[in-house]
Design brief:
The chain is an alpha+beta fold and about 180 residues long. It has one domain (about 1-180). Helices cover about 15% and strands about 40% of the residues. The protein has three helices and twelve strands, in the order H-E-E-E-E-E-E-H-E-E-E-E-E-E-H. The chain has helices at about 1-10, 75, 160-180; strands at about 15-20, 25, 35-45, 45-50, 55, 65-70, 85-90, 105-115, 120-125, 135, 140, 145-150. Strands 2, 3, 4, 7, 8, 10, 11 and 12 form an eight-stranded mixed sheet that branches.
């Protein structure tokens, strides 16, 4: 009988969560009916890498925003123990994975360090502190009234070589015409 009961107890992984008391998310242009999503990951050399299997809390009324990673080991989520964590808040029209091509803010906090994940029951929960900063977008910590401003990171198109050549040619023609007159 004892063995039967033991077999019915569900096995749980360790969870790492970043929760907020209250995030107010603003963006320009307005988000309209689109959603806000969040992912836990890492930030290195200007690149956010989302953890594997992370889930974000989606809320188009901005009442709460949080994200969770769950696994039996660090290798299962792709974030080593002792690594600084980052939180990506981004615009999304669905619950698809993180994309750097959308309006977003990336937050970090010195208190957000990935723990060693060990199979078992338990959560490690982080919340923004006064040392939280935005490495992309903007973020303001004010206790229970935190502001994240989403910034469009879409690449600014570089002028093509042909257009630069054409502009230079026009300049040279104008200069030559000016010298002749």
């Amino acid at each position: 009988m004892g063995l039967l009961i033991a077999n019915q107890i569900p096995a749980h992984a360790t969870s790492v969560k970043i929760n907020d008391t209250s995030f107010n998310v603003s963006s320009s242009p307005a988000l309209g009916n689109e959603m806000i999503a969040a992912r836990i990951g890492t930030w290195s050399a200007g690149v956010f890498t989302a953890g594997i299997g992370g889930t974000g809390f989606y809320d188009n009324e901005f009442g709460e925003l949080s994200t969770t990673l769950s696994a039996a080991s660090n290798s299962a989520v792709g974030i080593s123990a002792g690594t600084s964590l980052a939180l990506a808040i981004y615009k999304s029209t669905s619950t698809t994975g993180y994309s750097s091509a959308v309006l977003q803010a990336i937050l970090t906090d010195s208190a957000w360090i990935m723990p060693t994940l060990v199979f078992g029951i338990g959560d490690t929960i982080f919340e923004p502190t006064s040392s939280a900063v935005a490495v992309v977008g903007s973020y303001s910590f004010a206790g229970n009234n935190q502001i994240a401003t989403l910034t469009n990171l879409a690449a600014v198109p570089e002028p093509s070589v042909a257009s630069l050549f054409a502009l230079g040619t026009v300049g040279l023609v104008a200069l030559r015409a000016r010298r002749k007159s």
